[in-house]
Amino acid sequence: MAEKLKLYYFDGRGKMESVRWLLAAAGVEFEEEFLETREQYEKLLQDGSLLFQQVPMVEIDGMKMVQTRAILSYIAAKYNLYGKDLKERALIDMYVGGTDDLMGFILMFPFLSAEDKEKQRAVIVQKATSRYFPAYEKVLKDHGQDFLVGNNFSWADVHLLEAILMVEEKKSDVLSGFPQLQAFKARISSLPTIKKFLEPGSQRKPVPDDKYVETVRRVLCMYYDIKAN
Amino acid sequence: MSGKPKLHYFNGRGRMESIRWLLAAAGVEFEECFLETKDDLTKLQKDGSLLFQQVPMVEIDGMKMVQSRAIGNYIATKYNLYGNDLKERALIDMYVEAVIDLNELLMTHAFQPADKKAQHFATIMDKATNRYFPVYEKVLKDHGQDFLVGNRFSKADVQLLETLLMAEECKPDILAKFPFLQSFKARISNIPTIKKFLQPGSQRKPPLHEKDVPKLMKIFH
């Protein structure tokens, strides 16, 4: 019997979305259990499934993995999306670190007040266009290859595409000064597994809405205000 | 040219301290270039040394590495502190990521506004003693081995020791209810490279003092 791969999270993006992207990119099927109620979460806590009492949690290869970064690294290594040697891994880790930081600005966006949302939107766009996008634009321009690292599809490419699309949701023309990234986006989006994930009906989650925010608050009893960074 | 790794950061712990710990644990000598003023940071940014305009940055093996996790992963792999296989790496990553979460709380404590400090401190103590420490206590108790993963010294042990010591700086008796962590702390502190790093005169940095915060804010803001 094949060991099932199962994701435990809310029915929304949050920190689990990068995991969904990576599994999809690798062409790996997965199941999902969505946390809707406090009781579900408490049950997971009580049966010791959540090492640090937190989700994301992924059942994979007999482990109950937690900590998003650990999960992503494991999947990347297992499905050959982590470069071919130590130096390529170093580059992938650096690039993923940058896109992780960028997406971090977007992560708490749904939980902000309307006023803070506008401020944060400006912060996201500013960081994307002055700090992160220029770095990746230069990497692609300098080596002229299709993929960020080692002329091979890797986790870094998946993560960057995810980040680009998320920032575009905040400002649709944000790539206008970045021709390499525009070509990169088109190229990676048309890879068969990615293309499939981008189609309606896939396990990709939509932009978080109020219902998502309400679910998270209810399940985690997280009723305090979130401030933008 | 020395060939030693060169660390670029301010003269303090921050996000570079875990890297100092790891290099020291591996017995690797390193040099440091301290940012004292905003101009020092600007210079690095302008000469293209910082991929995302940020420090930490470590010159190592012909690369200018940024992103503390990337740097830590590279050093750990290079010096065999990252387990024997994929599953051990998974465990090390899980344990280290959680410690990083706790470190974030400890690190940002000095920067909290005065009216938030007490509450922040309470949060740190609560998370340390109810969420994080019990996990490592149980791991050590369950397998009865000297090290967290694979019966071998790894990055996870180094990072955990670093965090235990930082937590004790905040509350000296914080390990009172964790006998396995107490003996872990003693055991890992006694490893020759670690012992050396814990002695005065090493490159280990002291805790941030409130009076240093304004100077730091000037460099980074």
How would you describe what is shown here?
The complex is a heterodimer of chains A (229) and B (221). In chain A, helix 1 (17-25) links the parallel strand 1 and strand 2 (31-34). Chain A has 229 residues and is α+β, with helices and mostly antiparallel strands. Chain A is globular. Chain A is 55% helix and 7% strand. In chain A, helix 1 (17-25) packs parallel to helix 3 and helix 6 (155-170) packs across helix 7. Chain A has two domains: 6-79 and 199-220, Glutaredoxin (3-Layer(aba) Sandwich); 86-190, Glutathione S-transferase Yfyf (Class Pi), Chain A, domain 2. Chain A has a four-stranded mixed sheet with strand order 2-1-3-4, with helices on one face. Chain A has helices at 17-25, 38-46, 68-78, 86-107, 114-143, 155-170, 179-189, 192-198, 210-220, and strands spanning 6-9, 31-34, 57-60, 63-66. Chain A is built from nine helices and four strands. Chain B has two domains: 6-79 and 198-213, Glutaredoxin; 86-190, Glutathione S-transferase Yfyf (Class Pi), Chain A, domain 2. Chain B is built from nine helices and four strands; from the N terminus they run E-H-E-H-E-E-H-H-H-H-H-H-H. Chain B has a four-stranded mixed sheet. The longest helix of chain B has 27 residues, at 117-143. Chain A binds chain B through residues 51-53, 61, 63, 65-70, 73-74, 77-78, 86-87, 89-90, 93-94, 96-98, 101, 131-132, 135, and chain B through 51-53, 61, 63, 65-70, 73-74, 77-78, 86-87, 89-90, 93-94, 96-98, 101, 131-132, 135.
